[in-house]
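Q: Hi! First time asking for a complex rather than a single chain. Here are the components, and I think there are two in total. Is that enough to go on?
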Amino acid sequence: ETGVTQTPRHLVMGMTNKKSLKCEQHLGHNAMYWYKQSAKKPLELMFVYNFKEQTENNSVPSRFSPECPNSSHLFLHLHTLQPEDSALYLCASSQSDRIPEAFFGQGTRLTVV
Amino acid sequence: AQTVTQSQPEMSVQEAETVTLSCTYDTSENNYYLFWYKQPPSRQMILVIRQEAYKQQNATENRFSVNFQKAAKSFSLKISDSQLGDTAMYFCAFCAGNNRKLIWGLGTSLAVNP
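A: Yes, that's all I need. Here is the structure of the assembled complex.
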């Protein structure tokens, strides 16, 4: 069992759909992150949660809505996405948001049609 | 602005040989961390090695070692005795001061050939 698990691995959704990405970590960490990975671009940090509180929102459009019910689970709710939102979405965790060493999940490959 | 540059988009190496991936960064901070992550086809980003800027000794992890040149702001990764499983994208990342955000390079695609 990997330390950080993401589901689903692949997702195809229409622009009018609503879907959610799920991330679960089994490492006892207190910080969790959502990243977006697109071709030819550096990894983009989207959101940071520390002890369930959001500590970072990197000007992410409101069609992406994060939820962190506890330190082990993180969701990314998606609605009315655009084709340019197609990317690999990576979840990560670390001991806290003051400690940069992060452990990643395998990502969700999202395609918006 | 803090930036990370990986100047080699693609590299290849023969199995059992040694390869060096380059990374340079730009910062005015004095205290920071540097990382190399590996992303194989499975897509999971895996931490390979980390270096604290205040440490003069280069970090090593088994076949992986770094050449950290603080004055030159250079942080290269050396992979010795390359194995087929080392085939992956390699990302250099940087984190400085009170801002704990990781700043990422664009990556180097490494192919290890049999």
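A: Chain B has a mean pLDDT of 94. Let me know if you'd like any chain examined more closely.
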